[in-house]
């Protein structure tokens, strides 16, 4: 499935027990993994992730106790790491209804490690969700792949560059420059309705790319406002209204 189909399923709270996230770049795969995790732990109502419940807020800050990211310790994920994940996965979550394990570089699991995970994919604990981030999913065993839903992200634009309107809007939002924003909104307004979700994804990626230049609180506000913008775009709110909301929400 593509990113918009994934978001639609998550929004409808159709959460699967195992995902492979591929395509895009490392940053967009991680961001998508975190989106799945937030939707899985969200305790709010309506579309998931709601963005405002206690679980969504903790997920966004990267401090949710039921979302664990598993990084490889050496060149590959070993069977010991995966056995450890397996035993943690059977433990009942602390706060949320689900516990989520994001496996970074999942395609660097060696075959024994994958076989260790296979057992848990075959009979997953009812509350556990696994998200495998994989640049090259063909390195995963067919038996692993067949038990996961695969989300394929659009290819990353060259060297992290954004389209001109996305770059312009991001600059205006970061600086709070109203004149720049008016100009950016004019460009955004020319986009077709079906281009808007992809455009917002681009701005989100840009915000993460520039995360180091933004205080954490402002980045958080911007990402929350972009989530809100996604929801508005889904119900056909005009680009002008969305951009105005973005400015209001991110104003310093
Ligand atoms: Zn929520």
Explain how this protein is built.
The protein has 252 residues and is α/β, with parallel strands linked by helices. It folds into two domains: 3-153, 3-Layer(aba) Sandwich (Rossmann fold); 161-250, Four Helix Bundle (Hemerythrin (Met), subunit A). The chain has helices spanning 3-11, 26-41, 54-61, 79-89, 111-122, 142-145, 164-175, 178-189, 196-209, 216-234, 239-250; strands at residues 18-23, 67-70, 99-103, 128-133, 149-153. The protein has a five-stranded parallel β-sheet with strand order 2-3-4-1-5, covered by helices on one side. Helix 2 packs antiparallel against helix 3. The longest helix has 19 residues, at 216-234. The radius of gyration is 19 Å and the shape is elongated. The mean pLDDT is 87.
Relevant terms:
five-stranded parallel sheet; alpha/beta; Four Helix Bundle (Hemerythrin (Met), subunit A); single chain; elongated; 10% strand; 252 residues; 5 strands; 2 domains; binds zinc ion; 11 helices; Rossmann fold
